[in-house]
């Protein structure tokens, strides 16, 4: 369903769920073996809490994060199949993609650095895509209210552009002991992902 592109054009499609959906790598490979893939990753604990924050904004009656995160709260057994936690098992998902695509065709973007240095991260994306570095730090300003960088002036508009109201929300408060247990749970998975990625993302 991807539209055809003329010479010199790049067609992009963004669906975050593709990274974690089991049959997607094979389907993408069948469409194009030369496609370039970009994946934005962030600390999986922060990502899970962010995911839960979004969920309760739509379904406020669901149980607390602390209850959903564990199969057995007494033994401390994490429910790794609960979607907000399962998505953060990046090595598991990356392994499937590497079975179909060489590492050189997959570019990993640090979600943390995308906030702290958007121009730097987008510079690497432009290099990966073989584009001239046109987007630079002069295109961004930091919005203190949202806690995210925003575009000063998008193409064809005189107004600044920021991410929508669902981005930059204050995360729900989670029991620090639960956060620590999740960090301990993810640590070996993160280390394995760092090895596959060839870079250390510096997550706690």
UniProtKB/TrEMBL annotation:
<dbReference type="Pfam" id="PF00685">
    <property type="entry name" value="Sulfotransfer_1"/>
</dbReference>
<protein>
    <recommendedName>
        <fullName>Sulfotransferase</fullName>
        <ecNumber>2.8.2.-</ecNumber>
    </recommendedName>
</protein>
<feature type="binding site">
    <location>
        <position position="50"/>
    </location>
    <ligand>
        <name>3'-phosphoadenylyl sulfate</name>
    </ligand>
</feature>
<dbReference type="GO" id="GO:0008467">
    <property type="term" value="F:[heparan sulfate]-glucosamine 3-sulfotransferase activity"/>
</dbReference>
<dbReference type="InterPro" id="IPR027417">
    <property type="entry name" value="P-loop_NTPase"/>
</dbReference>
<keyword id="KW-1015">Disulfide bond</keyword>
<comment type="similarity">
    <text>Belongs to the sulfotransferase 1 family.</text>
</comment>
<feature type="domain" description="Sulfotransferase">
    <location>
        <begin position="16"/>
        <end position="189"/>
    </location>
</feature>
<dbReference type="InterPro" id="IPR000863">
    <property type="entry name" value="Sulfotransferase_dom"/>
</dbReference>
<feature type="binding site">
    <location>
        <begin position="167"/>
        <end position="171"/>
    </location>
    <ligand>
        <name>3'-phosphoadenylyl sulfate</name>
    </ligand>
</feature>
<feature type="disulfide bond">
    <location>
        <begin position="150"/>
        <end position="162"/>
    </location>
</feature>
<keyword id="KW-0808">Transferase</keyword>
<dbReference type="InterPro" id="IPR037359">
    <property type="entry name" value="NST/OST"/>
</dbReference>
<keyword id="KW-0325">Glycoprotein</keyword>
<feature type="binding site">
    <location>
        <position position="42"/>
    </location>
    <ligand>
        <name>3'-phosphoadenylyl sulfate</name>
    </ligand>
</feature>
